[in-house]
Design a protein that fits this description.
six-stranded antiparallel sheet, Apoptosis, Tumor Necrosis Factor Receptor Associated Protein 2, Chain A, TRAF-like, single chain, 241 residues, five-stranded antiparallel sheet
């Protein structure tokens, strides 16, 4: 015989729900006035949810054992089953992750003036909001540590990472561009990254060689460099209860 514990009334539960439960099932022995107790060997917690509303045992007892009169489980064609249920408290909170493919105002433009006069090893753009998240661009005009003197380095960074929860993360598919202000032959690289507390910025160390940048292609005009970031996809997390 098989015996299961089932949540029968799920219509009155929230749209997204789950219950964590420890339980025991019983079969009554009429002769000895005691119960046969069946439970997982390690007292495992079972999770009930919309797609899994029952847990139990496929082979609780063999039919021969169950029907043998001396075992006391079946008396005058009647039997008694029972259950002891412990519900582990659940706060009813969760997250739903989705990908937004049509972002409004998905482009940010950064004009870096007096480019040749920059003496700093790195500088940030102003913070900007796209997809309800704060971002900023990080530029190394003469390259970061491993690209120094060879290439310009350009990164996209989550601006408010310090105030986010410890386990935060956001996915973004994006394009970084250095604009050609004369011939429209822009230098573009595409990224697809998960940003998190351990990886708050992503981008390209060797975005564009310095020789090409200063080679008269139209990327620096009137000592101004124009950088653009375009977001194609971004993750969004919705909390629910």
């Amino acid at each position: 015989i098989s015996l299961y514990l089932v949540i029968s009334d799920t219509k009155n539960l929230p749209k997204v729900w789950e219950l964590n439960v420890q339980f025991k099932l019983f079969v009554y022995d009429h002769i000895r006035d005691k119960y046969l107790t069946i439970q997982d060997a390690d007292e495992r917690i079972r999770r009930f949810h919309g797609l899994k509303t029952e847990w139990g045992f496929d082979q609780l007892l063999s039919l021969n054992t169950f029907k043998t009169a001396s075992n006391g489980y079946l008396l005058e064609d009647s039997c008694v089953f029972g259950a002891e249920v412990f519900v582990i408290k659940y706060d009813g909170k969760g997250e739903c992750l989705s990908m937004i493919k049509e972002l409004e105002d998905n482009i940010y433009i950064w004009k870096v003036d007096n480019f040749s006069a920059i003496s700093k090893e790195s500088l940030y753009s102003e913070e900007f909001i796209i997809g309800e998240r704060k971002w900023k661009l990080l530029l190394h005009p003469k390259g970061d540590v491993l690209a120094k003197g060879k290439s310009i380095s350009l990164y996209l960074e989550v601006a408010d990472y310090a105030t986010r929860p410890l386990n935060w993360k956001v996915y973004a598919k994006y394009k970084l561009r250095i604009m050609d202000q004369i011939n429209s032959k822009h230098i573009e690289k595409q990224g697809s990254s998960w940003f998190s507390a351990l990886s708050k910025s992503w981008g390209f160390r060797g975005f564009m060689s310095l020789s090409d940048l200063y080679g008269g292609w139209g990327h620096i005009v009137k000592n101004t460099l124009i950088i653009e970031v375009e977001f194609m996809i971004m993750s969004a997390i919705k909390n629910f209860t």
